[in-house]
Amino acid sequence: MARWTVDDALRVTARFAEWLETGDANRLAQNHVWCFIDHPDEDDDLRQLAGRSNAALAQEMRTQSPIWCDPGMVDLLAAATAELPEVEPVEEHHLPHPRAGMVLFSKPLPTDWSGAMDEDGQRKEFHEEISAITWERPFTNRWVIRSWCRGAGVFNLTGGTGRIRCPDLRPSPVVELLGENHPATPVSKILIALTALTRTSGVVGQSDERASKAARHVARKAGLMDHRVRRLYLQKADSGALELDALRAQRQGTPRGHWVRGHWRHTWFSSVEERHWQWVEGFPRGDFTKGAVSGERIQVARKQG
Questions:
Q1: Residues 6+ apart with CB under 8 A from 136
Q2: What is the pLDDT of residue 299?
Q3: In degrees, to the nearest 5, what angle opens at C-alpha 59 toward C-alphas 54 and 63?
Q4: Do 97 and 64 meet the contact criterion of CB atoms below 8 Å apart?
Q5: Domain extents in the chain
Q6: Which of 13, 57, 17, 49 lies closest to 31 in space, CA to CA?
Q7: Model's pTM, two decimal places?
């Protein structure tokens, strides 16, 4: 699968913002927000709630720079999310933006989900590779967080309630509807890890990238006000791949032994009187580049001078 570039990120954002104002997007949102009906706006019908949710996201996408994670950043995010402990209920400061937004990945982010229980009481596990996450806040202290996979076409809604057409991203089956005091769930943990990594000094760099003239034209037609792309990259380019390789080796029971994995630290910040997650980077141990010597050991005498 080809990697998304800065131009791709801007084009996908523009087309997605336009799609949010279609009937297909509203039908999908209706399918997602039904469980909020008995909460703060019980007099509103489902269509109004869906429209409000999509409108909030479309507005933010037109005023914010798209967030795009480069390949190394995607690797570290996957590994760091797996290491993130169970966290406190999701709050504004955990998210890249407190109201709504979208983050895109240059290559699919590997994720493992736990689905609903089957008839035997066993929870179904499935693997998915997501290319974007959106979040919006149609109600006070409540968020709708959705993950998206690459793929244009016509897709069935959950529960067989209809079909929708999507331009670049198809909806993942995993949708999170987080209310007040709701603990973090799989997709929101990715956003929490992303935000924490960007706030850890010396780990993640950020730059405003200028897209091509053709991509900016697509963004202008869609009403995007900012045609730059906020690129997230690693200060140490190889650390993401090393962390992800070490995680996979650990899960397979064959740890490489030369890479000490990074971990999270819950640090108190007196300036804001809050605890925030900080990523402590991994590091190589021993001769990381060559690995262990196999076979007989040979002593080599080296002449001095």
A1: 53, 54, 56, 57, 60, 99, 100, 143, 144
A2: 40
A3: 150
A4: yes
A5: 6-117+124-253
A6: 49
A7: 0.79
